[in-house]
Every structure is written in C-alpha cells, then in structure tokens.
Amino acid sequence: MQSTLTAIGWPRTEPLPDPPFEAAILARVIAQHRDQFEIHDGVCVHRARTPASLRKPGVDGSHRPHVGDWVFVEGRGKEAALIREIVPRRTVLRRGAAGDHDATQIIAVNLDCVLIVCGLDGDFNLKRIERYLTLVASSGARPLIVFSKLDRNPEAAALVDDARSRFGAQAPVLALNLKSEDSRTLLLSALQPGETICLVGSSGAGKSTLSNLLLGEERQATQDVREHDSRGRHTTTHRSLLSLSNGACLIDTPGMRELKLQAEDEEAIEQSFEDIEALALQCRFRDCQHAREPGCAIRAALESGQLDSERLANYRKLSQELTDSKARAADRKAQEKVVNKSFGKRLVEKYGRR
User: Fold this and answer.
1) For 147-210, what is the HEC assignment?
2) What is the per-residue pLDDT for 225?
3) Dihedral, CA atoms, 209, 215, 219, 222, nearest 10 degrees?
4) Side-chain-side CA neighbours of residue 137 (13 Å)
5) Is residue 180 marked as binding?
6) 62 labelled as ligand-binding?
C-alpha cells in the first residue's frame, strides 16, 4: 500500500500510521469544492465529505481538511466517503485572512517545498518576495524563488542578480523562460521524487503557465496580463494537487494580493531577516531604536552600504504588522474573557452556584 501512496506524496522514509478504526482507508485530499472534497487513495480518486460537526459556522479552520492533508476515511463508491480523522500535519502554509480580523487561512499542508513565483515584468517586487519568504519560513517547508518571463525583459539579468544578492542565503533563485523545455528540465531537477510542492505568487505571475510546464501539457488555463501593471485575473480558482512525471506532487493555488502576517510569525521574521537581527545585537544599547543613538550598528551598516535601506524599511514594516497582530490577539482574548465572565455571572444569578 505504501508504494502506491508515495506516488501521491507520502514520504518514502516514514511508516504508515496505524488505522484509527476498523476498515479505515488512508487517502490524500487533492481538491476542495466548498464542503466537498476529492481524495486519492493511491489508485483512484473518490468523492468525500466531512462530518456535519465540522461544517458548522465557527469551527476552527485548522480542524477541517485542506488540500495536501492525509486523512482516514470510511466508505467509498457511489456515496461520498466520510472523512473521520486527519493525520497530524508535517508543515502548514498559512496567512492571515483578508480584512481587519485575525482569522487564519490555510493555503496548503504537508509541503516539502514552496515555489515563490514572480514575473520579471511589472510584477517584480522584492518586498513581496521577502513577505513570502517569511510565510514559508513559518510553514516549515523550504523556499525556492522562481522568476518567470525571462524572455520579456531586456534588463532581467540585472533584476535576477539583485534578487540573488538579497535572498541567496535564504533560498535558491531560478530565472526561467516558461516556454522553454530547458526550463522544465532545470526546474524538475530541483525537485525530488515523492516531494509535495506548492506554487504561490500574485495573479499574473505565471503560476498556471509554470504548472503546465511542470506537467508537460496545457492542463491549467492561462490568460494574458494587463499591460499597464502586469496583473492577471485569477485563472486558478481553487487549490488542487497534481502528480508530476518525476514523482513529485504539485499544489497550484489562486493568486494572493494580500499577505498578512500573524503573531505566530515572530520567529519566521527573525529567520528571514537574521542579518538585521544580528546587527541589532551589536548596538551599544540593548534598547536601541536605530535612530540617533550612538553606537548603533544598524545605522553604521546603512552608511557603509552593508545594509540596504529598503530591506530595513520592509523589516520594520513587517515587525510593526507583527506587533499590531499581537495587540489585536491580546484584545480579542481580553474581550472573550469579559464575555465569558459575564455569561457565567448571569448563569449564577439565574440558577445559583453548584
């Protein structure tokens, strides 16, 4: 059974988990359509659903299945299988949901590698890549930066060199012409059989074209981007897991225009900006604000050209987002405590103490 499951991403070196109930079947979630799922048992694709208890409003999204999950199900055939248990996840790629609240949106799970796709046109944005690198660092997967549209910009080489000097210590950087078979060979060589990879990037970055390149066929719909800003429409409308010819698995995702960090990303920010964190430790004063204090190592690095001012500005922006997220989480926790205390008091007034 394990040999069939490795074809859809089960780690070759890990033993299969013990079935939690009689007649349990291990499968992987390969697509989600609202409350309906497609699962693969290593041989065939089946329809699946969750128990009614997980479909209720207010249920924590982490308790629900997501694309990439390994699940134990019962029943297959004409009726949809019932997902009864989710196998503990190895990695989780997530972001803060759009809007002012602090809900978490899970993008994909059980990933080995995340391909951060960015176009070498108007989509080129180093700050956005830094944000993606922070999210990937928080997930536990390894990052790979892929620049698309190499053939569309005569200044592409300089842009790629700039990215390599800035991110080379954090992730490999590939620049590809997605219409070239050589690019497919290069990319597949960077991915290992049995791995699960995920594509992330803004709409129009070339994710669907890159998916087709990896698959070796035109399976994902593509559209031209707008000329004035190189943005595209969402050609990928839902997440799905696909098998590649080299034995790896690919999860394609819709484009994301908002990438919010959360309180849990503090360690990931430190990892993504470890050069700035290391400089801060060299400041004369422990509470240095890196403004006008004497002996500030960060200001000295800026003046010498060792540190890029744009990178520092992005670090400060992400750190402030993290601080704001922590504050909102603390406020929400305090409000919940007040509500629960008030509710308990009303129960005592009505029924007395027990």
Assistant:
1) EECHHHCCCHHHHHHHHHHHHCCCCCEEECCCCCHHHHHHHHHCCCCCCEEEEECCCCCCHHHH
2) 46
3) 0
4) 22
5) no
6) no
Q: What distance in Å separates the CA atoms of residue 269 and residue 272, rounded to the nearest whole number?
A: 5
Q: Find tokens 């074809």 and name the residue.
A: 7
Hey, what amino acid is at 219?
A: R
Low-confidence residues in the chain, pLDDT < 50: 223, 225-226, 228-237
Domains of the chain: 2-86 (2.40.50.140), 92-252 (3.40.50.300), 263-343 (1.10.40.50)
204 is in an annotated binding site: yes
50 annotated to bind ligand: no
Please name which of 215, 233, 207, 217 lies closest in space to residue 119, comparing C-alpha atoms.
207
The answer to whether 139 is annotated as binding is no
326 is in an annotated binding site: no
Contact 162, 118 (CB under 8 A): no
Provide CB contacts within 8 A for 6, sequence distance 6+.
12, 194, 247
What is residue 334's predicted lDDT score, i.e. its pLDDT?
76
Residue position matching structure tokens 């899970």: 106
- Tell me if 296 is assigned to a ligand binding site: yes
d(CA 218, CA 215) in angstroms, rounded, equals 8
Instruction: Report whether 202 belongs to an annotated binding site.
Output: yes
Q: Is 120 annotated as a binding residue?
A: no
Is 208 part of any known ligand binding site? yes
Q: Is 342 annotated as a binding residue?
A: no
Helix segments in the chain, DSSP class H = 2-6, 126-139, 156-167, 181-189, 207-215, 266-272, 274-280, 297-304, 309-351
What is the total residue count of the chain? Answer: 354
Q: Does 44 show up as a binding residue in the annotation?
A: no
Consult the annotation and say whether 352 binds a ligand.
no
Q: What angle do CA 127, 292, 298 make, to 5 degrees?
A: 45
Flag whether 148 is marked binding. yes
pLDDT, tens digit, 9 for 90 and up, residues 249-294: 998 777 666 677 776 778 888 888 888 999 999 999 988 888 888 9
Q: Is 24 annotated as a binding residue?
A: no
